[in-house]
Amino acid sequence: MKEFLRILKYARPYLPRLLFGFFLILIIAQSQLFMPLVQRFVIDDILSDVKATELTHSVFGYHLTYSPTHWLIVILSTIITFYALVGLISYVRTIVMEWVSQRILFDMRNQVFSHLQKLSMRFYDVQGTGQILSRVKEDVSSLRSLVTDTSIDILTDMMMFVTVVFIMFRWSWKLTLISLLILPLVAGNYFFFIGRLRVLWRHLRHRWADISTELYESVAGAKVVKAFHRENHQKRRVFRGMRQTLKWQIAIAKYRAAMGRISGFFQSFGTAIVLCYGGYLVIQGEFTIGTLVAYYQFLGRLYGPMMKLININATIQEAMVSSERVFGLLDSQPTVDEVPDAVDLPEIRGHVKFENVTFYYEPENPVLHHISFDAKPDMMVALVGPSGCGKSTISNLIARFYDPTEGTIYIDDHDLCQVTLKSLRNQIGIVLQDNFLFQGSVAENIQFGRLDATEIEVVEASLAANAHQFVVEELPGGYEAEVGERGMRLSGGQKQRIAIARTILRNPRILILDEATSSLDSESESLIQEALDTLMKGRTTFVIAHRLSTILKADMILVMKDGGITEKGTHEQLLELNGLYANMYQKQFKTKPQNIDWLN
After folding, report:
1. Could you say which of 80, 256, 421, 511 has the lowest number of CB atoms within 10 Å?
2. Which of 330, 359, 390 is the last residue of a domain?
3. For the segment 577-596, what is each residue's pLDDT rounded down to a tens digit?
4. What's the predicted TM-score (pTM) here?
5. Is residue 376 helix, strand or coil?
């Protein structure tokens, strides 16, 4: 119920239209009572005395006299007019409620996506892409119907149930009590099955989200799949997941079918008793044939809403599984968040200081141990060491994708945990090994660095990144050329230069280069290195590199191993130490190796 009320809150801005729609629904709901009442009138009041030349009846206080044939013509005209009006009202109701439901769907998806943008990187580290996309798309769609379609059905069926019971009690309280005897049986049948169904629905939702991740990876990584000839392997992975969901879906279908058939049996049982007992009342003269026919019609409108309410509740329980996932996401709090009194970081000089910083994802598996260093403004600081030693984690902490578990990080004597994220990240630029380009044009991807940049500024940034020439000479359409999903229409070197242009346009005071020139051919590396040299001028730069040739001129080199800094100094100072850095240098440049074991 709590989740259902949370969903209804999304309808609050559209309450006038929603209430108008509900008003129309109530009118339409009562229309179902029209035909049984007409049947009773025709059978009891007209056909019972067909030999009469004239029949007089009161309609809304007026006494009308017609022959039986003319009465039938009047009834036919009334029926046609009535259902034409019902059709028109139903059309308006459909338009109104569809508009409301689509607005609610839009608002819910917008809020879920907006909340995703606020969540920290740790959330994305834990959740798979398919899990996230499934919540934004399928789960939110499941919730939309609860506010409109399901609410409509509940309101309609409850009103119908109450109205029909009232009329039936007025006609025969004994027959009505007999009709209601099956209610406990139907309710007990529902509660027996619904608990089992809820467990299956929860498993099915989570498994489909996992399958979505596998499908996304198979498409996004199609080149790798084909390069290793693993098409059948991927098919088997997805097949295993889909086979498991098939088993659960069949189990759900069995349970729902059993629940429906048992409830249907109880309904038929109740109908048979009412029909026989009603026939007995006709024989006894307590009921007319017209009343029995109308009562039988009302019985269908009594059991129909009752059975529908049971099925609606099952639908609600299924949607509640989606609500758990959606509201679980909305209730997730960023692990990196601004303190209430966070201040805007002023324009910085780029002085970065780590004081005894420790960080871990899991307490039993620390990533960084008591890291301390002081990077002065405009310094080039290089981070080197084996994979997994914590180099990228340091850069993530500077950009505040994560917060330190212990210790403090300062920029220009400002504690990063006390400043706003926007003011911090607006002054930091990051160039990665595999930079992400968004689907769109070259200009749009460069302009992503600063959304208000002019065309001239975009071209200037492209020139500084050595990207302008290939953009205008090699790409059809120049800056308006589409880069494709993840920049797949560009080479690795071209993507890297676009990413550098994007960062140049941002004009950051602190620059992070994470393996920015690795895995490139020598020509592309030369062009990119030249662009990076331009980019690094006058900025505090952190360079993560395996190729030592790119960091020989660094003002400070931090040599890392097992989450700690083992050596610190310039290139020349570290060679003199004849330690881990010297060993790396000797191996890469094929000089005489030293007796140093990286793993000890």
Report:
1. 80
2. 330
3. 888 888 888 887 765 544 44
4. 0.65
5. coil
